[in-house]
């Protein structure tokens, strides 16, 4: 099996693990521009009470990016993921970086773990110009 095919199969397994139990992540909304630190939000579409109690979410580590065959952007170093209440109800993942984003497209791997398992979700962010 080619490395890319193997990575896709592994990502599919991780995605299935938690989604079968209820955690679903929605689309990403980017609120930052080129040259500014990353600011983005992802809606949590669904989560069970048991998952919410033990849910930990972060930008995946460099090793996970390498294993998945996905390019890691230096602008993701030290990025935080916080779970916050959205203004219109559903909870959100708020991603904030410290380093300026220098690329127009950034691959973002979000890793979520809970008592139900692990989810790895890949997003491609388009960073707008100022």
From TrEMBL:
Residues 23-126 form the FimV N-terminal domain. InterPro entries: FimV_N (IPR057840). Pfam families: FimV_N. It comes from the Bacteria. This is FimV N-terminal domain-containing protein. It comes from Ramlibacter albus.
